[in-house]
Design goal:
alpha+beta; Multidrug efflux transporter AcrB transmembrane fold; Alpha-Beta Plaits; four-stranded antiparallel β-sheet; 11 helices; about 65% helix; about 10% strand
């Protein structure tokens, strides 16, 4: 199936400077947000503490819940609605592991006193010690780093080192923008989000490899043409496939985001942003890096001839 004519010739290469400015604005906005907030907003998995999901029989709000739990003096208590249309709330507390035992039951008892017997149902209790959270955070970061190194080795073996550099730059670009968007929208980073980041790395790489494969193929059959022309024509030739693949994937992820419920909401949100940015980067980041590499190589060669 082809939804775009095979002979289309959009000047993607000619717009690479505008794309660079756009990418830098997104990355800088995200980084500024992270700096202002003192880093990512880590979930219970990484920061340690307890998370309790509670369902109420009648409508209430975070202020009333905090008022009901005021006597417990819970450290760092955060109350947020689980889903806009539900009566469920998530409670997060930063108490140490020694204080977590039986905390769910104690909170339930306090809420029963304020809301009445049978008006509160404890749906879920998760507890992570601070040391375990720190260890998980380190392992999550290392998983992303090892994935990047694996990509560098794989693309170098399959293509050339310059292609591997382009792929890595595009992947770092995708992860930084997704992380920045999470900070801007006050989303938490937990283990499912790390899994989403790894999925983004895989998806973005797949898109980039398709374009790179066509560039290598056209470099052999159209070697009389200038390299920027080859890169641009390769992007255009794979554009139909890129739009179809990314479009259908985004529809599935969008359905998860809208109808999947609060448990996977942030995971679907990360994929939604990551897949969109990954598709963009395979066109406007990974391929233009090859042109920058080619220009630098030509300048070094020209400088070498001049000196000799």
């Amino acid at each position: 199936m082809e939804i775009i004519k095979h002979d289309i010739n959009i000047n993607f290469v000619g717009r690479r400077k505008l794309a660079l400015i756009f990418s830098l604005l997104l990355i800088v906005a995200g980084m500024v947000s992270l700096i202002i907030k003192g880093g990512p907003d880590y979930g219970i998995d990484f920061s340690g503490g307890t998370l309790i999901q509670i369902k109420f029989a009648e409508a209430t709000n975070a202020v009333e819940i905090k008022k009901a739990l005021k006597d417990m003096e819970l450290k760092g208590l955060v109350v947020q609605k689980f889903d806009e249309d539900s009566l469920e709330f998530l409670l997060r507390a930063q108490d140490t592991s020694s204080e977590l035992e039986g905390l769910g039951q104690k909170i339930g008892a306090h809420l029963q006193t304020s809301y009445g017997e049978g008006a509160v149902e404890i749906r879920r209790v998760e507890m992570v010690g601070p040391q375990v959270g720190k260890d998980l955070r380190k392992k999550g970061l290392m998983a992303i780093v090892f994935a990047m190194v694996g990509v560098l080795i794989y693309v170098t073996i399959r293509f050339e080192f310059r292609f591997a550099v382009g792929a890595i730059v595009a992947l770092i670009h995708d992860v930084l923008i997704t992380l920045g968007v999470f900070s801007l929208f006050n989303k938490e980073i937990d283990l499912p989000i790390i899994a989403a980041f790894l999925a983004i790395v895989g998806y973005s790489l797949n898109d980039t490899i398709i374009v790179y494969d066509r560039i290598r193929e056209n470099s052999g059959s159209k070697n009389k043409e200038e390299f920027p022309v080859i890169v641009n024509s390769s992007i255009n030739e794979t554009l139909s496939r890129t739009i179809l693949t990314s479009g259908t994937t985004l529809l599935v992820v969008l359905a998860l985001f809208l109808f999947g419920g609060g448990v996977i909401h942030n995971f679907a949100f990360a994929l939604l942003i990551g897949i969109g940015v990954g598709t963009y980067s395979s066109i406007f980041v990974a391929s233009p890096v090859l042109l920058v590499w080619d220009d630098l190589k030509a300048r070094r060669h020209a400088a070498g001839e001049k000196n000799s």
